[in-house]
Design brief:
Layout (H helix, E strand, L loop, with lengths): L1 E6 L9 E8 L4 E10 L2 E5 L7 E4 L19 E6 L5 E5 L8 E4 L5 E5 L12 E4 L2 E5 L15 E9 L7 E9 L9 E7 L12 E6 L7 E4 L7 E2 L3 H4 L15 E2 L5 E4 L11 E8 L2 E9 L5 E6 L3 E6 L8 E8 L6 E8 L19 E9 L2 E10 L45 H11 L3 H6 L2 E4 L3 H8 L5 E5 L11 E2 L14 E7 L8 H11 E11 L4 E2 L6 E7 L13 E8 H11 L1 E10 L4 E10 L2
Parallel strand pairs: 28-29, 28-31, 29-30, 31-32, 33-35
Antiparallel strand pairs: 1-27, 2-3, 3-4, 4-5, 6-7, 7-8, 8-9, 10-11, 11-12, 12-13, 14-15, 15-16, 16-17, 18-19, 19-20, 20-21, 22-23, 23-24, 24-25, 26-27, 32-37, 34-35, 36-37
Helix pairs in contact: 5-6
């Protein structure tokens, strides 16, 4: 596994401040849209941070229309995009942000809603469900502790049922600089409770607070905020090993089995570390099942990466020089992996609790203040394997097959190279084989055992032979002119004519696209590959989802004179749609160590996905 972290810059090389990775609460999935700021300027990326467009201020419309003075030091610091595309913005002020600035889906300014004295803390402090938007107010009382006057107020949970036009308070708790009179110090989260077992339960929300033992509490509603009840697990904490502050968190996720997990924003318990909490909600009561020390700084964000959760910490107490990043396997959540240490000069680092809720195609985002008063947005590229690549190591618009430099995109007629006619997926071949040679290939195998290559064209054969010394060409169907050296009648779903462990690998491109018996084909592939050997296949991007969607057949058809003419007319074929994570899980199931590699083609703007499986030695 690997994580790559990089900063985000606009076209003027200004560091962008991450605000939001837009999330669809109806489908519970992230999008390709990311929102960031640079001072009072708002930027939007529609391609996961690869490029940015300035959306505010609009041409001819000054920032002063918002009531902001040109020298005002407050800047845009938070954004929430509703299901209709509206954008709710807040300024960077921990004490009094001064309301919510509302923009429509085209970034036209709709007005200022002075409904709140305070901001929400982070990504998991605001959410939407079935048209109901709620957020929790947050105040940093540290700024008030030195004041001579006593400060006391109520922090509220605010709800809107009309896309942010009007708001009402549905819950509140007293805060005070006199901690003895303070019910909470501040609210941390307000988030829909997504019950993956009972998906009809669609009106439940959870809110949490901090910071002292008695202030660390959790409440729940089952009717979109009309009524709330406390579900803090005082039974567990009364046993003495852990204090109630283990309920102090700033991000929360729900596992596939209904278990709720969070990583604490506190380690004042006996283990001197942040804690991973596993809990259930049983009879409207929080039941903590397990507590696992994770030996890191306080957690700020917990991002869903499909197969794993990414835990992002701040550098504050335990180690002021490092902000820890960890991965938890969903199947084995106690099996954490230390993947990266992001160095920070001062305490802080990821302390704003702003991040993606879930990654999109292996990419997620977070806010980081690496240095005092200097903000950055960090972009995480995660790959469940040894390699994650987004762009081939060749100059833009240069064909990786023939080396022809295409000076304009128009010369790529129908996305084919104007010189050798190589399609985008063919242009991935030199790139993928370069990666495989560096990180995957065992040379004793490729020197002595052939690779079983399915339906390989001349382009493919030439590239395969650069790595694999021996190649056996096979196909289920084929034309003699194109497959004169190919053994026909070989079905990847039934390789019974071939012995176990006899091949250095199996290669295919756009083969798994046209049948649904993927598990059987993978089992057969695993059987005939020698230990240490490699399985590789490309499935076209239009058939792939970024999640764990189960394979479905989207259409059935027969070949004709214009489409796959070499297939017998009486053979029915199908097109399929499937999730990347689902396919990798299937590869794992049959025994492979699975990975996928995304390769971006500059000319066509296509991303082609190769699935890689290694048979254990």
């Amino acid at each position: 596994m690997s994580i790559r972290v990089k900063e985000l810059f606009n076209s003027n090389d200004e560091i962008l401040r991450f605000l939001e990775h837009v999330f669809d609460f109806n489908t519970w999935s992230s999008s390709k849209t990311v929102i960031a700021s640079s001072g009072k300027y708002i930027y939007v990326s529609s391609d996961l941070g690869n490029s940015w467009s300035l959306v505010w201020p609009k041409q001819g419309v000054p920032n002063e229309i918002l009531g902001l003075e040109p020298n005002d030091k407050n800047v845009f610091a938070r954004c929430f995009t509703t299901s209709t595309g509206r954008h709710l913005m807040q300024l960077d002020s921990l004490i009094a942000p001064g309301g919510i600035y509302v923009f429509d889906n085209d970034w036209n300014y709709l007005g200022l809603k002075n409904v709140t004295k305070f901001n929400w803390l982070g990504t998991f402090s605001i959410g939407e469900r079935n048209g109901i938007i709620m957020f929790a107010e947050y105040i940093c009382l540290d700024f008030l502790y030195g004041d001579s006057e006593h400060y006391e107020d109520n922090l509220k949970i605010l709800r809107s049922a009309d896309d942010g036009d009007t708001w009402e308070s549905v819950f509140s708790k007293r805060i005070s600089t006199n901690l003895d009179n303070s019910e909470i110090r501040h609210f941390h989260t307000c988030f829909p409770y997504y019950d993956q077992i009972d998906q009809t339960n669609d009106k439940s929300w959870l809110i949490s607070s901090g910071d002292t033992d008695k202030q660390s509490r959790v409440w729940m509603t089952n009717n979109n905020g009309d009524n709330w009840y406390e579900i803090t697990d005082t039974d567990f904490t009364s046993q003495g090993e852990y204090s109630q502050s283990i309920h102090r968190y700033t991000a929360i996720q729900t596992c596939y089995d209904g278990t709720i997990i969070w990583v604490t924003d506190d380690f004042k318990n006996q283990h001197n570390s942040a804690l991973m909490i596993h809990a259930n909600i049983i009879n409207n009561k929080l039941k903590i099942k397990k507590v696992t020390p994770v030996f890191s700084n306080n957690s700020r964000s917990l991002i869903d990466f499909g197969t794993h959760y990414l835990n992002i910490c701040e550098a504050k107490y335990r180690d002021k020089e490092h902000a820890n990043i960890q991965l938890f396997d969903k199947k084995y959540p106690n099996s954490l992996k230390w993947n990266s240490l992001i160095k920070t000069q001062y305490e802080g680092g990821f302390s704003r609790s702003l991040s993606s809720i879930a990654a999109y195609e292996g990419r997620a985002f977070s806010y980081n203040n690496l240095f005092t008063y200097k903000t950055q947005a960090l972009q995480f590229d995660f790959h469940r394997g040894n390699i994650f690549t987004t762009r081939p190591e060749i100059p833009p618009l240069t064909c990786s097959i023939c080396g022809e430099i295409n000076t304009s995109e128009e010369k790529f007629a129908e996305n084919l190279c104007s010189n050798c006619q190589a399609a985008p997926r063919i242009r991935t071949l030199p790139v993928i084989f370069k990666i495989l040679k560096k990180s995957f290939i065992k040379y004793n195998l490729v020197e002595n055992l052939p690779i079983l290559a399915f339906s390989a064209t001349d382009f493919e054969r030439k590239e395969i032979k650069k790595v694999f010394k021996k190649i056996k060409l096979v196909a289920l169907y084929g034309e003699p002119n194109n497959y004169d050296t190919t053994t026909l009648g070989v079905d990847i779903r039934d390789l019974s004519k071939y012995e176990d462990d006899k091949y250095s690998g199996i290669y295919s491109m756009v083969v798994f696209d046209y049948f649904s018996e993927h598990e059987q084909a993978l089992k057969e592939s695993y059987r005939v590959i020698s230990p240490g050997g490699i399985f590789m296949t490309l499935i076209t991007s239009n058939r792939l989802q970024s999640n764990d969607s189960t394979l479905i057949v989207t259409s059935r058809f027969h070949a004709n004179d214009h489409r796959m003419s070499y297939i017998p007319r009486d053979v029915e074929l199908c097109s399929v749609s499937l999730g990347k994570i689902w396919f990798m899980n299937l590869m794992d199931k049959v025994g492979f160590q699975s990975s996928y590699i995304d390769i971006y083609d500059e000319a066509s703007k296509e991303t082609n996905t190769w699935f890689i499986g290694i048979k254990s030695s």
